[in-house]
Amino acid sequence: MREVINNIISLYKSDKTRLMDMLLDIQEKFNYIPDNAIDTLVEKLDLPKVHILETISFYHFLTLKNTGKYTIYLNDSVSAYMSGRKEVAETFEKEIGIKFNSVTNDGLIGLFDTSCIGMSDQEPAALINNKVFTNLTIAKVKEIVKNIKDGKDINSLMKANLGNGKNSSKLIQSMVNNNIRVIKSILSDEYIPGSALMKIIEQERDEVINEIENSELRGHGGAGFPTDLKWKFTAKTPEGKRYIFCNADEGEPGTFKDRVILTERPELMFEGMATCGYAINSDEGVLYLRHEYKYLKKYLENVLNKMRKRNLLGKDILGQKGFNFDIRIQLGGGAYVCGEETALLESTKGNRGEPRYKPPFPAVKGYLDKPTVINNVETLCSVVKILNKGNYWFKKMGTEESRGTKLLSISGDCEKPGVYEIKWGITINEMLHMAGAEDVQAVQVSGPSGNCISPSQFNNQIRYSDLGTGGSMVIIGKHRDLLKDVVMNYTNFFIGESCGSCVPCRNLIVIYRNTLQKVIDGKGVQADLDNMLEWEKVMKMNRCGLGQTSSNPIVTTLKNFPELYENKIIEDSDLIPTFDISKAIQEYCDATGRKPIIEE
Amino acid sequence: MKDKFKIIIDGKELPARHGQTILEIANNNGIYIPTLCNFEGLKPQASCRICSVKVNGRPMTACTTTVSPGMEIENDTPEMNELRKIIVETMFVTGNHFCPSCEKSGNCELQALAYRFKMDVPRFPYSFSKRDIDASNPKIMIDHNRCIKCKRCARGIKTDDGKDLFAFKNRGEKIEISIDNELAKNISDEKAQEAMDICPVGAIIKKERGFIDPIGTRKYDNKPIGSKVKEVQ
After folding, report:
1. Under CATH, which number does the domain B91-206 receive?
2. Could A48 and B48 be called an inter-chain contact, meaning their C-beta atoms sit closer than 8 Å?
3. Same structural domain for residues A258 and A350?
4. Which of A350, A446, A594, B167 has its CB 3.0 to 4.6 Å from that of A50, i.e. a possible disulfide?
């Protein structure tokens, strides 16, 4: 084993900032990170053992215990439950003969829960040895487990069911379907790789940034920060090493639009990075790819190679002396919070993905303390389109403060879940009509960190000044129990994904969950509802966006669906309604064999 | 000097310079902003959020926010103190803090903050979480029941050649502090004492020593936490 570990370490030139890659490689090799592997890392990298354990224990897909020869991660997001996750999960347990989050005694199969894997349009879905299995049914699960028990190769299980588009290509071979429903700009095939680069090398760096400024492009990750400003801040720093990161860590439950870009238009995204490289004078880019999309890594590496061969990446790009830019892929380890830009940079350095406080902003002090631009996948694609077609073309689409197009990931209770490229400014009603959704109770706009809205708000528009969004749209039908099926699931998601650093995000959100449970159990009182609204002020004191929004599932439904809560509460009294005397003395009764006399 | 300007904290105009934090200026001027994860000499990390103040209406942490002209800061207001009190209370119910039996009682910053904010009993139900005590190190004991994850130990206590002795393990509600027993097996008595002193609560206790200070002479027996700051002026 020592030799294997040594080889992995030397593959990354014993560079301790590449700890993530080393740990991920070790995990892949052994299905866990053995203790003596950690000892070797301690010795070779001169890192304290606690530091390495800190990193390992932070990430969902890095483990200290063997996860089995076949490791199954079944998504447990809201969309999965809406599509029959419960029955599928039960079938997995029954057929394998173990409960979730455990491994069979022979070490063959491990079964685990996992947060949204970006397949909300084809749930229930699971990752089995990092391969995606979609649209699972009881019958399919039975067949999968049988084949696994027979020792079949995981790839052979998917052969008959490969997805459309590039998903069936040799280097991907996945069951994933693109489900592209509406195409406007980014997803259109009228794009020739290299076309934007060809154009910009004739221009000054400032001209490129000016074009982006004039297009009024805003970041597509959700926050909507002007893209040109990020670039300008970085370009203004003293000469020297600068980095460009593409954030492909889309972990917001219900989002999957980057998955489709990564599959069908990766050249567009990479060209966007190279364009930014030219504009801000940087020679190195990193694509931070969420671990759930590992199945795309080989394919993306091949795309990069092809681009290098065509001199769209590498040295003296397109013959332009001194225009050097190349890209590497950094795989994540399974942590929603790493979608936050500073956490993403920490993670890339091999640390736990804890958001840093700002300032300093990454534009000034980012990856390895160097100025860094971090853009969303979709944003970088828009950059190339703008340079190709001009800012006027881009500005013509959308609304005054939200220019261009937006990819929506639509899932939940609708006929046509999938990716819709819309012009900013359409209403929720128009969106629901497109997706074929009827009898809608609520729409979760922008995922759990966003806003759960009621039909009275369906005439509102999708735009930054109204309903801003990173693109996740989960449609919730009238037949769902909103509090139990949706709000509770999302709240548990945030509890599981908190980095744990800020006190309110670590502690108060758990108290929120317990209070919600109390209300659902019919034991809540008016004060509980008032408190949950009041505590939002404390949540807003958290450091990062995750912490500040993790009470949103509860708070926005309390505001938009007050009757759901009010119908469940009881009159306040001097007694604590959650106290159950029979339960409290159960142990005593069992031990003594006596029964209490409790007066009603 | 060009870089000198004024900021306002609770209606009081105070001299400020670029690069200073809100907390520094408050401390220099006898204004108490409560802190917990902050420790003099360590790089602030702003994780307890107790020092949050409102800067022109927005909550920001005083320990990390550097000042700029035009800042109007709300600190000692009923609203901010109530929010801070909520944060303190969440810590009491999440861990297991039994002050009467704790070696750090009277010298504990969490306890002192609770007194200062006049917490009678936490408003939240106790979680009675199951936490362990790690006594594997020969010199120090870690009581996870009391740990508030401020990371002061991890940031401040290093080996002589600067390596980390403490770090986090896990994330979210499962997060805990852990000690590198390989590096820490031969730590000196002084270092162990330093670790105990840097801990704001009783989570790190130097072994074979306890209840040294008689009641009445402990750090916060006579004056509430923050009194020192007010004596500056």
Report:
1. 3.30.70.20
2. no
3. yes
4. B167
Tokens of A475: 């449609």
CATH at A502: 1.20.1440.230
Task: Tell me the two tokens of residue B49.
Answer: 């959020």
What local confidence, expressed as pLDDT, does residue B209 receive? 81
Q: Does A499 touch chain B (CB under 8 A)?
A: yes
Q: Return the DSSP state at A31.
A: S
Number of domains in chain A: 5
Range of the domain at A152: 70-161
The structure's pTM equals 0.96
Name which of A585, A553, A558, A320 is nearest A451 in CA terms. Answer: A553
Q: Are residues A265 and A135 in the same domain?
A: no
How far apart are alpha carbons B74 and B68 in whole angstroms? 15
Can you spell out the DSSP letters for B160-207? TTS-BSEEEES-GGG-EEEE-HHHHTT--HHHHHHHHHH-SSSSEEET
Burial of A84 (0-12, 13-18, 19+ CB in 10 A): middle
Is there a contact between A14 and A346 (Cβ–Cβ < 8 Å)?
no
Q: Which residues in chain A have their CB less than 8 angstroms from residue B183's CB?
A: 48-50
Say how many residues make up chain A: 600
Distance from CA of A35 to the nearest CA of B (A): 14
ipTM (interface pTM)? 0.96
In a domain, A355, yes or no: yes
Contact B164 A51 (CB under 8 A): yes
Q: What is the CATH number of domain B4-76?
A: 3.10.20.740
CA distance A381 to A479: 38
pLDDT tens digit string along A113-171?
999 999 999 999 999 999 999 999 999 999 999 999 999 988 888 877 899 999 999 99
Residue A578 domain-assigned (yes or no): no
